[in-house]
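Convert to structure. Protein one:
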Amino acid sequence: MPRRALVTGLGFITPIGNDRATVTTSLREGRHGLAPVTFLDNPDLSVKVVGTIKDFVAETPNWRDWHFPAAYDIPKETLRGLSPHGLFALCAIAQALRDARLETPALHDGTTGLYCASAGSTLLAFHHVSRLMESRGERCGPLGVVSSIAGTLNFNLAAHYGIRGAVGGFVSACASSSHALGCALDDIRLGRQKRMIVVGAEEATAESILPFAAMRALSTNPDPATASRPFDAERDGFIGAGGAVAMIIEEAEFARARGAPVYAEFSGWGQAADGYSIAISHPEGAGLTDAIRRALTDTGLTPADIGYVNAHATSTPAGDHAEAKALQKVFTAAGAKPRISSTKGLTGHPLSMSGVMEAAFCSLAIKDGFIPGNAHLRTPDEVCAGLDLPRETLATDPGIVLSTSSGFGGSNVALIFRRA
């Protein structure tokens, strides 16, 4: 029998909650976590809304100015090397370990690995490079590199938790943490690791979000209650967000032998690229169609077996259009009609952490028996004809769940979860 993988722990620092109970309530009740913002004290900027992280203050380069819940006891020597999103990630992992009933010493024997996803900290990169240039090369913080570049999460978190198994970072834009999950699953299936921690994290700062405005990818809607509306005919772009989500995946027999709690089985995955554009999805959803079909093949399932799809849909006109086309090709054309929703109507789009965040949402939905609705959806785009897009959360078992992710360069990933 091939090795199977179970989801045994979750940790959340998100716009809709910083713990499992709050996140679950937000998903069930459709409570969004978006709020007005004035970046750079400039009210003339077109970006007016962001997915905020509550109870954390970490918008400056100096860790001494940060504030976070007292429940997280983080040594100063650890804080010195962290970025703001590294702080979020460390707290999300701490939650996930408690949730999985794991103590830190259990991570030290080489059976546990760590895969991370982020774009790095543009806030800290700008800060350290600016100091370097202003001093004509004579001043730069000694931890400037390890706290800011794309690998900052794996550098800091592996050292902090004493991880001796596989450690790596994934950078495929908004598909990054889904790629991390897929590769983590493969490591467990192949017997390379018994347990994998996967975490994705991002910052919601001017440095990380405003550059997307130049691409015309961000919504200019100033109303938090309608700004993020995936699949809606009036959508005009995504709402940036930050935070961190961690998942713990364990080989099934290994997990059961220690009496681990179980949310769901992580059954399989697929990936494919568009080979079309550096930024825009293939208009017919070609790569995502292939990724979904490969995930179904990997798990031996048919389109009719899927009960719920947690769509990547970010609320951009082009991206949602392409995803709707892919879902029609895979499901509608086969006579299948799963429920479909994008939880980004509640959270906004946290870039590379969105895959693991939504996989964790799917795990909650499977465990607790509900299907999140499409928050803020009023009039579905005509391209969504034939798709089942419930407005409100449904108190029904989602069955087998598919979660999709798409990133710049045409990277597409599909993940499949089911009740264990």
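Protein two, convert as well:
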Amino acid sequence: MTAAAMLHPNEAPGHAELMRRAAGLVPILRERAARGEKLRRVPDETIADLVDSKILRVCQPRRFGGSELGYDALCEVSIELGRGDGSQAWVANVYSEHAYIAGMFSDEAQHEVWDASLDTLISASIVPQGNKVIEVDGGYRLQGKWSFASGVHHANWLLISEVAETKAGKREHLYCLLPKADVTVDDDWHTVGMVGTGSASVMLDDVFVPGHRVITNADVVAGTCPGSAINTAPLYRMPIMGFAQLALASVPVGVAAGMVEDFIQQVRGRPGQAGAELLSERIAEASAEVRAATLLLVDTARRNMQRLADGIAIGEAEAALSMRDSGYAMSLAKRAAGRLFEATGGRGLKLDAPMQRAFRDVYGGASHGSLSWERSALRFAQYALTG
């Protein structure tokens, strides 16, 4: 029996139970963090634990064994897992997020994904990269290389996003769902941060994707995807771009929270050391930054979910706010991580020290294009001044 299987698993745990299970996995993720870095992907045992815990089903449709909770729950679970290890928490986050996206596809596509197993894992390359996607009879043909497919080594399915050339001569932003067997993994993930995410590239060589496994970003934004009529929870009417980064930012915020805990233990273990007052100030400020970042992310996600539950669409205004809050939360996490790592001294430089890995993971997560504070601030300011 895996470690997570001993945490009293249920088929579709609620919010509080998922948080309990996530907290139970924190020391396990910490223990495996160094091995994940050596593997450059999540250890097999962690995948088994995450699957057994049902944490990855937080946003999965209820009709396929999921908890069907909102994005606020995903943010909170991701922050908790981040306290254990950034890389493993990041992959858990994206697997959970991609289950919500799959829930917006056609009924036929959803059955293809989950009929074989309710524990299907979906990796993705969500940001369009200028590759060749052409509409043909019955679907689309894809050609090219898509980067940053976190968790691809253990995935069963892939989500690929790209701007396609339609038969009508238009360009349309699409999300395509395809089995992993249709792609070739290019194991090119050699990085300084988030090393254990296994975020390798995938290559598609003239791969055909049938129309029932394609949705348009226009339908996602409008909340009119085929799956949104079947899976009626508010989550399946939430746009991706502008909103999904709330959960992504949650992982580095959780990592920074773990750094605060580790730093407190480090200082507590050396009473009377020189500069104790300065170290105390760093603890207080970093913990406040992490707390503020947590509140920003969870509150914003909760407000978005409430609007959708009330039957009110979330659009440009909410996207601008969500980007501002996720970007600023990321900035707060970086500040906390930086001020703590600076004070760890020579011990923190050793490669077996959790603090240096956490520092790299916070900054590695922050390098994700959607989490840039400058970009997010500009988006918010443009809307505030002209919207």
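The chain has three domains: 4-114, 122-223, 245-386. The chain has a mean pLDDT of 93.
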